[in-house]
Structure formats: structure tokens, C-alpha cells
Amino acid sequence: DKGNHRHFMAKEIHEQPEVVAHTLTHYLDMAAGTLRQPFEPAVEWKGLSRLSVSACGTAYYAGLTAKYWFERLARLPVEIDVASEFRYREAPMPENGLALFISQSGETADTLACLKYAKQERQTILSVVNMPTSTIARESDAVAPTLAGPEIGVASTKAFTCQLTALACLALAAARARGTLSAEDEIRHVQHLIALPGLLAKALELEPEIERLARELSKASDVLYLGRGTSFPLALEGALKLKEISYIHAEGYAAGELKHGPIALIDEDMPVIVVAPHDALFEKTASNMQEVAARGGRIILITDARGAAECGITPEATIIMPEMDPLFAPIVYALPIQMIAYQTAVFMGKDVDQPRNLAKSVTVE
Ligand code: F6R
After folding, report:
1. What whole-number distance in Å separates Cα of residue 158 and Cα of residue 120?
2. Are 151 and 130 in contact (CB under 8 A)?
3. 12, 31, 96, 136: which could join 106 in a potential S-S bond, CB 3.0 to 4.6 Å?
4. What is residue 184's predicted lDDT score, i.e. its pLDDT?
5. pLDDT at 359 over 90
6. Residue 259 and residue 3: Cα distance in Å, rounded?
């Protein structure tokens, strides 16, 4: 049932404040403003030498974002790869290692193959899954659920933000167990997580503006997405979402890689979508943006009021996000990324819920 929405994808985008809140209640003690104690899933984070993550597509980008959180908050080294590469690499895995698999369906063939390999390598298996009865959930030692509810649209939206939410909570739990998070910092980060559903609701209000922007984007044949730090995986996710439902060619790049190649593509025909909350890396991204502007590039900037004031150029369009703490900002910045893809594809008359050549669950290699 699509409710009042034209597509499942629209319904699922709009459900995000609710399902992220639901997912948070699983991991947080809302009244105390802390992580739940005991924290489920119970994982031995303390003596861990490495976390090895594998997943596919959007779930992989959730893992790539979480790498920044596990490393920064818990000082835990993270190795991450797409499942279809990891499974054939014969990668050595550390003694007493933890392997993390992220999957909405819990049935993705390549991700499951990695899980089986990690088992042979005697890793503890942790999975972040949306389908509690799935094969990946059943094969795991510990499951960290996402409570997104069924996701029908082929393009993942609410599963992604719920994966990020669960992973943020896991990174905090790891940090607490490893002694890298003070009680005050735990409370501060948990407050930021509790603020997410309200911020997601605010981000949804940007839809009319994004609809206007989408009309312009629909004329493009190529779009470049740039981001740094935790905005880099979002640039990759933005490009994936746009290409899979609008069939416009798009690429995501780490902003710092611009001058190592992709800057050659810049001209007045290719929109460049820059994801840049005003965080510690903002100035670096702003200078990349200025390089694009100096070459006549068309910039669409997704930032906050401060970023808009301090970017040093006049972008073709600016999407102004609410103010928030930068650490978990990707969870909120995912929404304009999804809405841009959705509105562009709808304007172009594409079948957003059933894009050509794609299946919801990839159970063959
Ligand atoms: C993109 C998308 C896919 C899935 C990928 C993994 O919008 O939906 O890239 O994220 O096929 O699927 P799961 O999470 O079911 O393992």
C-alpha cells in the first residue's frame, strides 16, 4: 500500500523520520539519554584488532560511512570491501577478528559468500539486516537489526538511513567498550542521535525546492557528485541512486580526487553536486568547489546556512539543510540525495519503483 504517495519509493523516503526513530529505540535508552545497557547485540569489542566489513551497493556505502565512525570514535581499524571482490580475494583475517555484513534483504549472494568465508576464517559474525528471518541473519553470531519495515521500492532509501543509524549506535557501543568514549561524550552523541528524526522531518520539507532543481537536472547527460570525509560515501550513494532510477550517467568522487582526473570533465553542461555540511573539512571542499566554478562548472551545493555563507562562490543552486552536529549528518544529508534522484526520475517519466534490469534482491552472483 502506497498510502498517499505515487510510488513506494516516495512513501519510503517519507517514512524515514519514523523508522529511524524506531531503530534508535532499539539501541538507546531514550529516557536516560545513553546507549542501552546491556547493549544488544553483545559483541566483544575490547580486544579486537580489526573489523572487516563487506556488503553490496547501497549497503556497502553505509559500511563505508561507518568506517569513519568506528575509526574515529572507537579507534578500531576497519577494512571494507564490496562483497563481490572480498569473497574471491583469499584475504587473511585476524585471529579473534570480527566480520560485519550489512544487507537489507539478508539474501544477497555475494554478501552471504563473504560471511561463509569469514566463518571458515573463524571470525565472529555480526550482521546489520532488515529481514530478521533471512539467511544472513540466521547464519550470524549476532544480529543488529534495522527496523525499517519492508522496503518495496528497488532503490534502497529507508533501509540505508536505518543501516547508518544502527551502525552509528554500534560504533558508539564499540567506543564505550574500548574505553575511547567518555560518559559525557556518550551523552552528547546520543543527544545528536535522538535529534535525528526531527532533522529528517525538516529535510523532507525541502522537497518542493528539490522538485524545481530536478527539472534542470533531467536535461543533463552526466552528473558528478563530490564529498569529503563522511560526505564521500554519500557522493557515491547519490550517483548510484540517480543512475539506477533516472538512467542519467553519474559518478561520485572524493572531492580531493578532483584534480587527479575528473576535473577534465568540467564544462557548462555537467552539473556538479557538492555534499558539504559545514564540518572540519568544509574549507577543503569549498576550495575544490571554487576550482570547479573557475572552469565554468555548474554547482549544486548541499550544505547548511553557514556553509552557504562561507563557500566563496555563487552556486547555481543551494540546498540549505538544518544545522546539526556534523558526525552523524550523513544520516540526514541522505534525504536530499534520495529526493534529487526520485524527483528527477519522476519528472523524466521513469518507473522509479521498478527500474529496468534491476531486482530488489540479488540472490545470484
Ligand atoms: C541500490 C540498492 C542496491 C542494494 C544492494 C544490496 O539502491 O538497493 O545497491 O543496496 O543490492 O542489497 P541488500 O542490502 O539486500 O544486500
Report:
1. 32
2. yes
3. 136
4. 97
5. no
6. 46
Give the three-class secondary structure for 213: helix
Q: Which of 12, 58, 160 to mutate to test the pocket of ligand 1 (most atoms within 8 A of CB)?
A: 58
Q: Give the pTM.
A: 0.98
Distance CA(100)–CA(153), nearest Å, equals 25
Cα-to-centroid distance, 104 and ligand 1 (Å): 7
Within 6 Å (CB) of ligand 1, which residues are found? 56-59, 103-105, 108, 111, 155-156, 240, 244, 361-362
Distances (CA, A) of 99 to 245, 318, 365: 31, 39, 21
Res 365: pLDDT: 79
Residue showing cell 572524493: 254
Would you list the DSSP string of 261-308?
TGGGG-STTSEEEEE--SSTTHHHHHHHHHHHHHTT-EEEEEEEHHHH
In terms of DSSP bridges, do strands 298-304 and 271-275 run parallel, antiparallel, or are they unpaired?
parallel
For the cut 90, the answer to whether the pLDDT of residue 360 exceeds it is no
11 a catalytic residue? no
Query: DSSP secondary-structure letter at 322?
Result: P
User: What are 67-119's pLDDT values in tens digits?
Assistant: 999 999 999 999 999 999 999 999 999 998 999 999 999 999 999 999 999 99
The 10 Å Cβ neighbour count of residue 49 is 11
Tens of pLDDT, residue by residue over 242-259, are: 999 999 999 999 999 999
Query: How large is the ipTM?
Result: 0.99
Q: By alpha-carbon position, which residue is closest to atom 10 of ligand 1?
A: 58
- Residue reference for cell 581499524: 77
**Model confidence pLDDT, tens digit, residues 139-173:** 999 999 999 999 999 999 999 999 999 999 999 99
* DSSP structural state of residue 44: -
